[in-house]
Design brief:
Elements: H1 23-45, H2 47-55, H3 61-70, H4 78-85, H5 90-96, H6 100-103, H7 106-124, H8 129-143, H9 152-158, H10 166-191, H11 196-204, H12 214-217, H13 221-233, H14 245-261, H15 271-289
């Protein structure tokens, strides 16, 4: 018998779970990656960034690179950085870490990378100050309350205090989002059964020359050739090193998974706000792309 009083209100409905990112969300994520990656990349490819790291005592590109990118994690050793950065040969990471922290502690390195990025952006974005000032707080909306579960590099950067200077904020937000996407990308190709070297070898069989990948990630010829043999045994590479249809399909699936995983930060934006942000970022991205070469080891296509 139903003994529930007739005047008892029904329980409130459970809140609906947010829908999984669809094609539109994934497309927005890829669009925004192409517009924000050049802003972040000034920390790798500009003379201002190199000079700032050198002023901190970090002479040579790789000391500045590994220290600058790893500094949000604290004075870590090579093992967690090899795991988080992925793609890099363990030996090349170990040549830089942890020795760099004896020269410049993470706090000093964070100052150097911020100063170098700001100085580079000031030069590259000359004439775009108004767009940069409007874009920075809009981009910050994508990082506000960002879910970084399972994304170590993004979480470490997101935990840093947001800067006040518009150029600093622009670079900071682009970096948080870049590492957020990168963390998801590593998870996607790991789930596809690829290791760091295999991912590069497969990409070299599709569209980026080996010369842009192998020397910049530190793999020896023997390690590269062994990875190529493993991929060939899986039917992903032809004997000449070019990707098979199956290899291209796997690469495409990894990229699509990366886009889906990177879609959530952009869910807060309606179409109008997203279009406005994209319109502001487009000239900034083109200006910063002048500091890059194409093709490049980070895989960013020409604007």
């Amino acid at each position: 018998m139903d003994t529930t009083p007739r005047d008892t209100p029904p329980p409130p409905p459970l809140p609906a779970a947010p829908p999984p990112p669809g094609r539109d969300g994934a497309a927005a994520a890829r669009r925004m990656w192409r517009l924000t990656e050049p802003l972040h990349a000034v920390t790798y490819f500009t003379p201002e960034a190199a000079a700032a790291f050198e002023a901190a005592g970090l002479r040579g590109f790789w000391r500045g690179y590994f220290a600058g990118r790893a500094a949000p994690l604290g004075p870590v050793g090579p093992a967690p950085v090899t795991a988080a950065f992925a793609g890099f040969a363990p030996a090349v990471v170990a040549r830089a870490l942890p020795a760099v922290w004896r020269t410049a502690p993470p706090e000093r390195v964070l100052e150097a990378r911020r100063d170098g990025a700001r100085t580079a952006l000031r030069r590259l974005l000359a004439g775009h100050a108004a767009a940069a000032e409007e874009a920075a707080p809009l981009l910050a909306r994508a990082t506000d309350g960002l879910d970084t579960a399972g994304r170590v590099l993004s979480a470490a950067n997101a935990a840093l205090p947001p800067p006040d200077d518009p150029l600093d904020l622009l670079w900071h937000c682009a970096t948080v989002l870049r590492e957020h996407r990168g963390d998801g990308h590593v998870a996607a190709w790991t789930a596809a059964g690829l290791d760091g070297c295999e991912t590069l070898v497969l990409r070299a069989g599709i569209d980026i020359p080996r010369t842009e990948l192998q020397p910049h990630r530190g793999w020896t010829d023997a390690e590269w050739d062994a990875a190529r043999e493993r991929l060939a045994a899986r039917g992903l590479l032809d004997p000449d090193g070019s990707a098979t249809g199956g290899g291209r399909a796997l690469h495409r699936a990894v990229e699509e998974a990366t886009d889906r995983a990177a879609a959530r930060p952009w869910a807060l934006f309606g179409p109008l706000a997203a279009d406005r942000l994209a319109a502001l970022l487009a000239p900034l991205a083109r200006a910063c792309a002048a500091s890059l070469r194409f093709p490049n080891p980070i895989g960013l296509p020409a604007p």
